[in-house]
Amino acid sequence: MNQESNEKMLHVDRRNFLKGAFATGALAAAGVAMAGCSPQPSAASAEGEEALSETGGAGSAPKGYMCQQDWLGAAPIIADDEITETIDVDVVVCGGGNSGIQAALAAAEEGASVVVLEKGAPADGTDYIHVYGQEIGHFNSQWLIDQGYGPYDTGDIVSEFCKRGGNRVSPDIIRVYVENCGEMFDNFFSLIPSDNHCVEMGPKGELGLHVAYGRKPEDYPIIQAGYKTWVGDAMFWGPYHDEPADGVGMYSNLSEAQSFSMKKAQELGADWRFQTTAVVCTQDEAGDVTGVIAQNADGSYTRFNAAKGVILACGDMGQNSQMIWELLTEVAEWCERQDVDPDSLTTMTMNDGSGLKMGCWAGGYVEPGPRPTMSMGGGGGGPWGTSPFLWLNAEGKRYMNEGITVGAFAATIRQPLGIVATVTDSKWLKTVQNASIDHGAPNYTRPQYYEDLVTDMAEVVGGGADGGIVRSCTITERMPSQVFGADDLETALKYAGYTDDVIPTCLESIKRYNELCYAGKDDDFGKDALHMVPIDEPPYYVAPSSNAATGAAGLVTLAGLMTDENLVCLRPDYSRINGLYAVGNCLGQRYGNAYSTPTAGVSIGMAMTHGRVAGKNAAARS
Questions:
Q1: Considering Cα of 468, then 471, then 473, then 478, what sign does the dihedral take?
Q2: C-alpha distances out from residue 442 to 154, 213, 555, Å
Q3: Helix, strand, or coil here: 325?
């Protein structure tokens, strides 16, 4: 399966999906897709067993990884007599999702002959694959500049990515994205007919853009808790819906938008092979990658010789619980301590990590730990995303600077088990309006969402102990949250689930918080004065979530293969595996410890950009 498409995933409910670790108000879109690669069983040869032994021994951890099990296994051996066809091309792209489409398009534009191996079938009633996602995060496109957003300082943005990733990223790989994403988007957008409905979002048919309430173009970057955010998130949300979606992606037009890039690539000669599964790379005596062996829908095998390169665009390891447990060690440790079944750890994607395995079998390796996954969120509940409200843990205590969205998950999972709640009052909208545009932040692109938020909040107090269901103002699916309200804090806290013995501590924490707000300085955790809004005017609101202190694989895993700045895969000795490129969630060194980005939509935007860059690089290889 690939990181950007899967028809089945359309009906996964994010609300239920994220309950495993703790429900949050800070959610975001991530890409999923059918993959072009998924190794199929084949008879293990003596050579295969020997190769496995050289990397750690049958059943043991692969060499170079602090694991307990052999998540990698031996490379499949496909005998020559099993191969029924051989095809010669310049570039083979494994996976036809967001990154694979752009890789194929770029290579074809450069004059290369291209074949795309896509495990999935076209979406029902279409001739293109379903790609998951609604938003494309990027910077300095002409589309953005024409609206007054940029050009921005690319070095400043690269530095911000490195900071958010704890400097456990490749600055070069980040720079490649930041410097090329504008051109990628302009080219992508130019292929969509101007009258096509897939760019319709607002009442005027305009494409959406994630902006903050009341801010002008010159107000960016917004700085919140020392972290910067810029406008750069193009949103393919489709027309307004007044009800939450039944599943993820139901309101997205990105699949159709991407189809125009796919069709352009096909016009230029790219050959799309649906229901064709990449199995293993072929290599010459020097270890350079020379092609791919793929399995067709009927079970037969085809050898694709790639004169210029193979691009792994196969997505993450989301459905491979063994790989998640062995490689996402921080997630596994949290889960181990709470007796979580290792087999239960999966993401929203349907990818199995086979692209990562293909890269490793060819001599590459997955970036070292701690490895990232898209476990965003943290903090209290509520429909307002990453807005910096007061958060209280299960003991009724405040525990962090709520403006540091990059640290919310890590700080919250370290709290006592049980309730984690957002507490606010009648001035709640002020905090929402002053929030940044971090991933999962309130989104003023569609003002109607704010109006709906106000409408729903007005009904909360009348719901009494049942509270009210409030539609979110952050993402297109409009996931609802339960909010409780009352004219006194004690009642609101009790409705939300706090017990009588904890409520006094809650009240003391709120009292202390108000004192800091009145003083205009957060001496406890250092939250910006702008966001220190006292909780002193009824009605009072409490939005609970829960902390089970279990790690979560999240929406999508982000640990990928080590490459150089040209996206060529590396061996452990840093020699290059010529002819092998990694993009999308097969590519590592992008996010460091966790997913935190200075604009939303980066998961998709980065996949598309690196795909395009790799396509150009592969086509230019002599």
A1: positive
A2: 25, 8, 19
A3: helix
Quick one: tokens of 605? 């935007």
Give, as one character, the DSSP assignment of residue 7. Answer: G
CA distance 18 to 23: 6
Sign of CA dihedral 540, 18, 328, 67: positive
CB-neighbour burial class of residue 477 (10 A; exposed 0-12, middle 13-18, buried 19+): buried
pLDDT digits (tens, 9 = 90+) for 279-307: 999 999 999 999 999 999 999 999 999 99
Q: How far is CA 121 from CA 8, 93, 269, 305, in A?
A: 12, 16, 20, 23
Pairing of strands 83-94, 301-312: parallel
- Say if CB 266 and CB 118 are below 8 A apart: no
Average pLDDT over residues 395-408: 96
What pLDDT is attached to residue 444?
Answer: 86
CB 260 within 8 A of CB 134: no
Q: Count other C-beta atoms under 10 Å from residue 365's C-beta.
A: 20
**Residues of 293-304 as b/e, b for ≥16 C-beta within 10 angstroms?**
bbbeeeeebbbb
Please tell me the predicted confidence (pLDDT) of residue 134: 83
Asked whether residue 203 carries a pLDDT value surpassing 60, the answer given is no
Retrieve residue 387's tokens: 């807005």
Token pair of 29, please?
A: 């879109």
Alpha-carbon distance of 513 to 235, in angstroms, equals 36
End-to-end CA distance of the chain: 30
218-257 tens-digit pLDDT:
999 999 999 999 999 998 876 666 666 554 444 568 888 9
Task: Give the integer Cα–Cα distance in Å for 198 and 206.
Answer: 10
In the sheet that holds 418-424, the strands lie side by side as: 390-392, 418-424, 540-547, 481-486, 468-470
* Tokens representing residue 195 in the block: 């009258």
Q: At a CB cut-off of 8 Å and minimum separation 6, what does 522 contact?
A: 401, 516, 528, 529, 532
**What is the per-residue pLDDT across 78-118, written as a single tens digit (0 to 9) for each?**
999 999 999 999 999 999 999 999 999 999 999 999 999 99
Alpha-carbon distance of 331 to 2, in angstroms, equals: 22
CA distance 308 to 177: 22
Q: Does 3 or 460 have the greater pLDDT score?
A: 460
Do 365 and 571 meet the contact criterion of CB atoms below 8 Å apart? yes
CA 305/CA 86 separation, integer angstroms: 7
Contact by Cβ (8 Å): 324, 345: yes
Contacts of 478 (CB under 8 A, 6+ apart): 241, 243, 244, 245, 449, 452, 471, 472
φ, ψ for residue 48, nearest 5 deg? -65, -45
Alpha carbons 349 and 526: distance in angstroms, whole number: 37
Rg (CA), the chain: 24
- For residue 63, the tally of other CB atoms under 10 A from its CB is 12
Q: Would you call 280 helix, strand, or coil by DSSP?
A: strand
Query: Residue 573: CB partners within 8 Å, gap ≥ 6?
Result: none
